[in-house]
Amino acid sequence: MHKDFENFCRRFQGLTGRNEDGSVSFTKGIPMVKELISSDLWFRDFIKEALSERSWLKQQPPSLWPNELTLYRSPDRSFLVLAYILEPFSMDTIHDHGSWGIIASFINGTKEIKYRRHDDGTVAGYAELEETIAKVVKQGEVTCVLPLNGGIHQMGNTSEKISVTINVYGRAVRRGYLQFFHRERKTVKRVYSPRTCKEVLMVRTMGAMGSGEDILRGALVNSLPDYVKEEYETALTVSKRRAP
Q1: pLDDT single digits (tens) 96-105
Q2: φ, ψ for residue 3 (rounded to 5)?
Q3: How crowded is residue 151: how many other Cβ atoms within 10 Å of its Cβ?
Q4: Do 56 and 39 belong together in one domain?
Q5: Do 137 and 167 sit in the same domain of this protein?
Q6: What is this structure's pTM?
């Protein structure tokens, strides 16, 4: 690990590891992130290691985003540092966040569109969004997101050059999934990590097939995260309706 990046992680741990109020870590962390991205030498080291030591890539955790690199995860899970490599003329899906985040345009600029949610979230699968801000985050600048509905946005690269962002996220207030939005259709859906997604898809399929109550109830005796239990319970309801 390059000394500049190691120093950043140690200093940032000093903010989050003292159990300070999240907004304090958030505010004090912004100038630290700006200082980190003032040089790219440490990032070159990461790329060099990844391309020369195949084990680095193999150790990358599964992610919703194929262009995501996990650079650091604090042992106490109080923060993590990610890099996103954005190909030319690419935009990601509108999504929310499970924690606050500081997002820095590191190599070239990026475009961000922020949204406000107008519905109350009580209707499953429905969401009504209003665009509030559309801006270019220039190289060396940062933007920020808050957890849940306070962090609904879309990032992208509108140039013909590769762009890279460095994203620092705080302690999660919601784990396990993000929400993806389709503004025109007024829809929202949960999106899980690749591993969890496989289980959830099988659970939903069992519900859709009907007559799967015994299998679903049997699996529920296992220790499962709350959001996965919800999928089983929903599938049970669907299965009962479809059973002959």
Answers
A1: 999 999 999 9
A2: -60, -35
A3: 20
A4: yes
A5: yes
A6: 0.91
